[in-house]
Prior knowledge:
Blueprint: H1 5-12, E1 15-24, E2 30-37, E3 48-54, E4 60-66, E5 76-81, H2 87-94, E6 101-108, E7 120-125, H3 130-142, E8 148-154, H4 163-168, E9 172-175, H5 190-196, E10 202-208, H6 209-221, E11 229-234
Parallel strand pairs: 7-8, 7-10, 8-9, 10-11
Antiparallel strand pairs: 1-2, 1-6, 2-5, 3-4, 3-6
Amino acid sequence: MSESIDDVRALETTWTTGRIIEKDHPTPTTVRLRMHVEDRRRHRPGQHYLIRLRAPDDYTAQRSYSIASDEDDPLVEFLIERLPDGEVSEFLADVAEVGDVLEMRGPIGRWFTWDTTTPALCLVGGTGVVPAVAMARAARRLGRSSLLRVVAVGRSPEELAYAEELARAGATLAWTRTDTGERPAGPPTVDELTPLLTGTELAFVCGSARFAAFAEGLLLDCGVQPGAIRVERFGPSG
Length: 238
């Protein structure tokens, strides 16, 4: 029996706990956490969790982080950018240790999710790559990689987490500060993006507010209808 909307909303407001099982730093400014979540529900690619920190005086701070793992992964994976003065991200990157238990709520989100059957393109930048990684992993598991095209933008290969995994999956990688010889340094162009959009019905954009504005404008310039673009943006508050 499928869950009703009311059931899903009720579960989205229920807090649980997650234990850090693995922790590493894929790039100098990010931390990857793989967690065992109590009473875990299966998630859809594109969803996120709230992670809440609680101080001894009961002060709390929480932030939303997209899920990178496939739903069949026994652990839930997050990639978090360590932001200067980021109350939650600094703690997770510098203080939290394997074995620590954190308060969590999720998975959350319905609009920015991929159903794994609709042909789609992801245009993502920086740590906005995370939901695209979840979508690509789901597509690979289901044998539907042809339905998903990913364009990931970063400053350099060393600064973009999951770059090697995405390259193996056939993603287009654009480096804004590094000329690799395959293409000049710079963001994607209309000429590069237009052929990749052929046959797609949805476009997902994820990244900083500045990147999201650029990416949405680029998709519109390529002829994508506004109603076919789904945008998730974030700012320096995590």
